[in-house]
Amino acid sequence: MYDLDKKEGNTGSLGRYFWRIEDSDGTGAREKCLSWALLNEFANIRYLYHILIKSDPEMACPCTWWQAWLDWGRFSWSWWYSWPEVCYESRRSKFVYYYSTLTGLVGLWLRQECCYSTDWRDWGSLKLGPPDGGHVKVTAFHYWYNHVKTFSLDEEAYQYCCVDIPLCNQFYLYRPSDSCSLYSPPPRRKCYCIL
User: Fold this and answer.
1) pLDDT per residue over 78-132, tens digit each?
2) Distance between CA 49 and CA 99 in Å, rounded?
3) Can you give the pTM of this predicted structure?
4) Which of 92, 109, 116, 137 is the most buried (most CB within 10 A)?
5) Domain that holds residue 31
6) Is 18 contained in some domain?
Protein backbone atom coordinates (compact mmCIF):
# COMPACT_ATOMS: atom_id res chain seq x y z
CA MET A 1 0.00 0.00 0.00
CA TYR A 2 3.03 2.24 0.42
CA ASP A 3 3.70 4.50 -2.60
CA LEU A 4 0.54 3.46 -4.45
CA ASP A 5 0.27 6.94 -5.90
CA LYS A 6 3.83 6.79 -7.27
CA LYS A 7 3.47 3.47 -9.16
CA GLU A 8 1.68 2.65 -12.37
CA GLY A 9 -1.70 1.06 -11.54
CA ASN A 10 -3.58 -1.69 -13.32
CA THR A 11 -5.25 0.96 -15.54
CA GLY A 12 -1.96 2.01 -17.11
CA SER A 13 -2.00 5.43 -15.39
CA LEU A 14 0.17 6.58 -12.53
CA GLY A 15 -1.53 5.93 -9.19
CA ARG A 16 -4.85 4.82 -10.69
CA TYR A 17 -6.24 1.38 -9.93
CA PHE A 18 -9.48 -0.32 -10.81
CA TRP A 19 -11.19 -2.98 -8.66
CA ARG A 20 -14.56 -4.60 -9.28
CA ILE A 21 -16.67 -4.55 -6.15
CA GLU A 22 -19.81 -6.33 -7.38
CA ASP A 23 -20.34 -10.08 -7.35
CA SER A 24 -20.48 -10.65 -11.09
CA ASP A 25 -19.01 -13.15 -13.50
CA GLY A 26 -18.90 -10.58 -16.29
CA THR A 27 -22.00 -11.65 -18.20
CA GLY A 28 -25.05 -9.44 -18.22
CA ALA A 29 -28.68 -10.32 -17.60
CA ARG A 30 -29.45 -10.43 -21.33
CA GLU A 31 -26.77 -13.04 -22.01
CA LYS A 32 -27.85 -15.08 -18.98
CA CYS A 33 -31.50 -14.99 -20.03
CA LEU A 34 -30.75 -15.99 -23.62
CA SER A 35 -28.36 -18.78 -22.60
CA TRP A 36 -31.02 -20.07 -20.16
CA ALA A 37 -33.55 -20.04 -23.03
CA LEU A 38 -31.10 -21.89 -25.29
CA LEU A 39 -30.53 -24.61 -22.68
CA ASN A 40 -34.30 -24.96 -22.25
CA GLU A 41 -34.69 -25.28 -26.00
CA PHE A 42 -31.97 -27.94 -26.02
CA ALA A 43 -33.70 -29.79 -23.14
CA ASN A 44 -37.02 -29.56 -25.04
CA ILE A 45 -38.90 -28.17 -22.04
CA ARG A 46 -41.87 -26.91 -24.07
CA TYR A 47 -42.50 -30.40 -25.47
CA LEU A 48 -42.24 -31.95 -21.99
CA TYR A 49 -44.68 -29.35 -20.66
CA HIS A 50 -47.27 -30.08 -23.36
CA ILE A 51 -47.00 -33.86 -22.97
CA LEU A 52 -46.72 -34.16 -19.18
CA ILE A 53 -48.35 -31.11 -17.60
CA LYS A 54 -50.74 -29.38 -20.01
CA SER A 55 -52.52 -32.59 -21.03
CA ASP A 56 -52.96 -33.80 -17.43
CA PRO A 57 -56.28 -32.61 -15.90
CA GLU A 58 -55.02 -33.49 -12.41
CA MET A 59 -52.36 -30.78 -12.72
CA ALA A 60 -54.55 -28.14 -14.37
CA CYS A 61 -54.85 -24.89 -12.42
CA PRO A 62 -58.15 -24.10 -10.70
CA CYS A 63 -59.83 -21.10 -12.35
CA THR A 64 -60.37 -19.10 -9.14
CA TRP A 65 -58.66 -18.72 -5.80
CA TRP A 66 -61.72 -20.16 -4.09
CA GLN A 67 -61.51 -23.36 -6.16
CA ALA A 68 -57.80 -23.67 -5.37
CA TRP A 69 -58.47 -23.22 -1.67
CA LEU A 70 -61.17 -25.91 -1.71
CA ASP A 71 -59.07 -28.31 -3.80
CA TRP A 72 -56.52 -28.91 -1.03
CA GLY A 73 -56.05 -32.51 -2.13
CA ARG A 74 -54.36 -31.46 -5.37
CA PHE A 75 -53.01 -27.97 -4.53
CA SER A 76 -51.30 -26.38 -1.55
CA TRP A 77 -50.86 -22.68 -0.82
CA SER A 78 -47.17 -21.80 -0.94
CA TRP A 79 -47.52 -18.78 1.37
CA TRP A 80 -43.90 -18.88 2.54
CA TYR A 81 -42.69 -18.50 -1.04
CA SER A 82 -45.28 -16.33 -2.75
CA TRP A 83 -46.55 -13.83 -0.16
CA PRO A 84 -47.92 -11.14 -0.82
CA GLU A 85 -48.95 -12.90 -4.03
CA VAL A 86 -51.44 -15.74 -3.70
CA CYS A 87 -49.94 -18.78 -5.42
CA TYR A 88 -50.76 -22.47 -5.14
CA GLU A 89 -48.55 -25.38 -6.17
CA SER A 90 -49.70 -28.74 -7.38
CA ARG A 91 -49.03 -31.55 -4.96
CA ARG A 92 -48.27 -33.82 -7.89
CA SER A 93 -45.02 -33.51 -9.74
CA LYS A 94 -43.53 -35.40 -12.63
CA PHE A 95 -39.95 -36.55 -13.00
CA VAL A 96 -38.31 -36.84 -16.39
CA TYR A 97 -35.05 -38.70 -16.71
CA TYR A 98 -32.85 -36.57 -18.92
CA TYR A 99 -29.30 -37.50 -19.85
CA SER A 100 -27.13 -34.70 -21.23
CA THR A 101 -23.37 -34.41 -21.24
CA LEU A 102 -23.63 -30.81 -22.45
CA THR A 103 -25.62 -29.55 -19.45
CA GLY A 104 -24.74 -32.28 -16.95
CA LEU A 105 -28.41 -32.92 -16.22
CA VAL A 106 -29.70 -36.17 -14.82
CA GLY A 107 -33.37 -35.30 -14.65
CA LEU A 108 -36.05 -32.66 -14.30
CA TRP A 109 -38.92 -32.32 -11.81
CA LEU A 110 -41.95 -30.48 -13.22
CA ARG A 111 -44.64 -28.97 -10.99
CA GLN A 112 -47.51 -26.57 -11.68
CA GLU A 113 -47.81 -23.17 -9.98
CA CYS A 114 -51.07 -21.21 -10.12
CA CYS A 115 -51.21 -17.55 -9.05
CA TYR A 116 -54.33 -15.50 -8.35
CA SER A 117 -55.06 -11.79 -8.40
CA THR A 118 -55.28 -9.76 -5.21
CA ASP A 119 -56.52 -6.63 -7.01
CA TRP A 120 -60.03 -5.57 -5.97
CA ARG A 121 -61.26 -5.38 -9.59
CA ASP A 122 -60.58 -9.03 -10.44
CA TRP A 123 -59.86 -10.50 -7.02
CA GLY A 124 -59.28 -14.25 -6.99
CA SER A 125 -59.03 -14.73 -10.75
CA LEU A 126 -56.24 -16.79 -12.30
CA LYS A 127 -53.29 -14.76 -13.58
CA LEU A 128 -51.79 -15.74 -16.91
CA GLY A 129 -48.40 -14.88 -18.36
CA PRO A 130 -46.08 -12.01 -17.65
CA PRO A 131 -45.25 -10.37 -15.39
CA ASP A 132 -46.51 -12.32 -12.38
CA GLY A 133 -48.71 -15.15 -13.59
CA GLY A 134 -48.23 -18.71 -12.42
CA HIS A 135 -46.04 -21.04 -14.43
CA VAL A 136 -44.68 -24.54 -14.56
CA LYS A 137 -41.76 -24.90 -12.14
CA VAL A 138 -38.77 -26.94 -13.25
CA THR A 139 -36.11 -28.22 -10.86
CA ALA A 140 -32.99 -29.60 -12.50
CA PHE A 141 -30.78 -32.32 -11.05
CA HIS A 142 -27.13 -32.58 -12.10
CA TYR A 143 -24.54 -35.31 -11.89
CA TRP A 144 -22.83 -35.27 -8.51
CA TYR A 145 -19.43 -34.76 -10.12
CA ASN A 146 -20.55 -31.82 -12.28
CA HIS A 147 -19.45 -28.87 -10.17
CA VAL A 148 -20.32 -26.27 -12.82
CA LYS A 149 -23.93 -25.13 -12.54
CA THR A 150 -25.14 -24.91 -16.13
CA PHE A 151 -28.92 -24.83 -15.68
CA SER A 152 -30.16 -21.75 -13.80
CA LEU A 153 -32.91 -22.02 -11.24
CA ASP A 154 -36.34 -20.69 -12.21
CA GLU A 155 -36.00 -17.88 -9.66
CA GLU A 156 -32.67 -16.81 -11.19
CA ALA A 157 -34.05 -17.01 -14.72
CA TYR A 158 -37.06 -14.91 -13.70
CA GLN A 159 -34.69 -12.35 -12.22
CA TYR A 160 -32.57 -12.23 -15.41
CA CYS A 161 -35.45 -12.18 -17.90
CA CYS A 162 -38.27 -10.31 -16.13
CA VAL A 163 -36.72 -8.06 -13.50
CA ASP A 164 -33.30 -7.05 -14.85
CA ILE A 165 -34.34 -6.68 -18.50
CA PRO A 166 -37.73 -6.68 -20.28
CA LEU A 167 -37.58 -10.19 -21.78
CA CYS A 168 -40.36 -11.68 -19.66
CA ASN A 169 -42.06 -13.19 -22.72
CA GLN A 170 -38.91 -15.26 -23.23
CA PHE A 171 -39.24 -16.64 -19.69
CA TYR A 172 -42.95 -17.48 -20.12
CA LEU A 173 -42.24 -19.15 -23.45
CA TYR A 174 -40.42 -21.92 -21.56
CA ARG A 175 -42.41 -21.64 -18.30
CA PRO A 176 -45.98 -21.12 -19.56
CA SER A 177 -49.04 -20.38 -17.45
CA ASP A 178 -51.91 -22.84 -17.33
CA SER A 179 -55.25 -21.49 -18.56
CA CYS A 180 -57.44 -23.78 -16.37
CA SER A 181 -59.23 -25.12 -19.47
CA LEU A 182 -58.83 -28.75 -18.34
CA TYR A 183 -59.60 -28.14 -14.68
CA SER A 184 -62.46 -30.07 -13.16
CA PRO A 185 -63.25 -29.62 -9.46
CA PRO A 186 -63.09 -32.68 -7.24
CA PRO A 187 -66.42 -34.45 -6.73
CA ARG A 188 -68.41 -33.44 -3.67
CA ARG A 189 -68.45 -35.97 -0.93
CA LYS A 190 -71.79 -37.24 0.20
CA CYS A 191 -72.56 -38.39 3.67
CA TYR A 192 -75.43 -40.71 4.36
CA CYS A 193 -76.30 -40.70 8.03
CA ILE A 194 -78.24 -43.51 9.59
CA LEU A 195 -80.43 -42.47 12.48
Assistant:
1) 766 666 778 999 998 888 887 766 666 677 888 899 999 988 888 889 999 888 8
2) 17
3) 0.74
4) 116
5) 25-174
6) no
